[in-house]
Sequence to fold (250 residues):
Amino acid sequence: MSRQKIIAGNWKMNKTPGEAVGLAQAIKAACAKAPKAKVVVCPPFTALAAVSAVVRGGAVALGAQNMHWEKSGAYTGEVSAAMLLDLGCSYVILGHSERRTYFGETDETVNRKVKAALAAGLIPIVCVGETLAQRKENQTDAVVSAQVVNGLAGLGADLGRIVVAYEPVWAIGTGLTATPAQAQAVHALIRGKLTELGGAALAQTIAIQYGGSMKPDNAPELLSQTDIDGGLIGGAALDAVSFMGIVNAA
Ligand code: PGA
Fold:
């Protein structure tokens, strides 16, 4: 099964609209040579409109970093799937570990968001991953399995429209990376859970990204693993040269 690799930049709470436009222009220009991987940039909400205008019609897709599950209403500070679609987003990152840790997101709220995103026509990039303490206690498989099974419950055939990102929390922004073998083992576990949820044929089509200190130098080996279908890139996505180094490794 050959799945197209997908490299997504998660810009987190970085870049003003003006700064974001510069970065997006550089990535768009570098992607004019038709990269083999699918490329997605996920700026903060405040820069989505400006970046959308830059990437529209090109090879680079636009994603957001979060959304609410309700369509509209009294939810101060939140944005809906329809608002993201209107700005030209086709992807949305959901359940990132920083959202789980600092903003109280749970598998249940992630599941609501995933369903709302799919219903609206957005492709959710659903993040899962264990903490260092959980890994040390040999809880990795149990934690990641529960996040996958509960976060992706009840999707039916729409399961085939999602992207999963395995991001070990201890590797995010720390410079520590899972070894290719460690990552591959969890990716295979995730594909097994996706198989339980949607059957083997469907599970084989779902892209599972690795995230956590992926850089141009460690990307080739990570991306060559059987079940690693791309990357969700934080720090290295804030610079066009390092981001493109990863895109070109895919
Ligand atoms: P990092 O972040 O590449 O800076 O480790 C990845 C992420 O949080 O998506």
